[in-house]
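Possible regression after last week's pipeline update?

I re-ran a chain I had predicted before the update to compare outputs. Posting the input and the new output here so someone can diff against the archived version. Not blocking, just want to make sure nothing changed silently.
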Amino acid sequence: MIVSASDVSAVLPDQACQFDRILALEGEVYRNVAGRKTLRFSRDGKSYFLKVHLGVGWKEIVKNLVQLRLPIVSAGTEWRALHRLKELQIETITPVAYGCEGWNPARLRSFLITEDLGETVMLSDLLSEWKRKPLTSPDAVRLKRALLEKIASIARTLHQNGVNHRDFYLCHFRMPIKELNVVAPQNVRVYVMDLHRAQLRSRTPQRWVIKDLGSLFFSALDLDFTQRDFYRFMRVYRNRPLREILTRESRFWRRVKTRARRIYARHQGLRSRKAYS
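New output (post-update):
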């Protein structure tokens, strides 16, 4: 089965219905591990990304089920999530085509083709650079605030509409390099990436909201994320006065911070073990 959001033949001439040839496309490989491969290829002067899934195996499926996690068995999860974000008017990569073959969930073969965003920068890298070279100009400070408010707005829209990311880290947000001088919050474009584990529901359970926000704050802990920044995020995320949020939701936000610190401690432990292994 191959479905498309556009004319696939324009992207893959004479190959649209040949599953094996699509999976065998060659290009610049970005990832190639454990049955998953991501590469960039070009057609008619335009760049695309191909993500290939070659089956996760029953061991991985059982492990996820035992841990009460939904196993990701194909590229279909990301295909559906990308379309959902488009419906919500959240910037993300544009899906072009998706294909899935097989009936055994442990052996499904699938692919996802998306358009290339072009020259972008990960927000984690951008903020790391700002930490090394502290912001001094008013425009740079305004841009940082605009990005914080944009991410808070994205998080609010996702969670209010039944979407949780499951990998909600700053490295999965990107913005166009050419727009780094745009400082008005309403004009800042931030793209949400890596949606292969996203969950779609009519309502997002609170525990998944806390996991998303905890992951996000964990990824900002080493990037001079101040208490003032945290308050600003809370105000935009809830779209309510800060005093009201602090009065009514203190327990919720403590749980978010606790989640972030636990991930940070685990991450530091793994880093230490690698350093001495």
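Follow-up from reviewer: compared with the archived run. Residues 250-276 form the longest helix (27 residues). Marking as no regression found.
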